[in-house]
Amino acid sequence: MTIILSKDFEFESAQSLPQFPVGHKCRNLHGHSFKITVSVRGPVDEATGVFYDHAVISDAMRPIIAQIDHTYLNDIPGLENPTIENISRWIWDKLVHHLPGLYEIVLHETSGARSTYRGD
């Protein structure tokens, strides 16, 4: 049996989107209450009935959340243009070598706007 396990995280950050046209509201300094869903995919061990310990995901995310929570994202190397697309890829790149089976990053910037990234 193959399964996808997911764990949610939240952080608060400010950003501006310098690539947006002059006059666009997102070009201005603003903030979001972000929600990240990190998913891993793989086989369930038939003997234990378990695929992944959620604590492994939490441990991998802890330093990332510490780096981006309550910050101005544009000041973080690699996030100078912190669109949800770019943030999703940035998080993936930080996690991919620490979470075997990493499958998907879903990043919500509002309750109705999100991006999904699967490493390609």
What does this structure look like?
This protein is an alpha+beta fold and 120 residues long. The protein has a single domain (9-36, 52-117), classed as 6-pyruvoyl tetrahydropterin synthase/QueD (Tetrahydropterin Synthase, Chain A), CATH 3.30.479.10. It has helices at residues 54-68, 84-95; strands spanning 2-15, 30-43, 71-72, 102-110, 113-117. It has a 5-stranded mixed beta sheet. The radius of gyration is 16 Å and the shape is elongated. It starts with a strand and ends with a strand. The mean pLDDT is 96.
From the 3D coordinates, which CATH architecture would you assign? 2-Layer Sandwich
Q: What is the total domain count?
A: 1
**Regions with little confidence, pLDDT below 50 for 5+ residues:** none
Per the CATH scheme, the topology name is: Tetrahydropterin Synthase, Chain A
Backbone structural class: alpha+beta
Radius of gyration: 16 Å
Basic shape: elongated
Major β-sheet, in short? 5 strands, mixed
Please tally the β strands and state the result: 5
CATH class: Alpha Beta
Query: What is the N-to-C succession of helices and strands?
Result: EEHEHEE
CATH superfamily heading: 6-pyruvoyl tetrahydropterin synthase/QueD
Number of helices: 2
Query: How confident is the prediction overall: mean pLDDT?
Result: 96
What proportion strand? Answer: 35-45%
**Strand order across the largest sheet:** 3-1-2-4-5
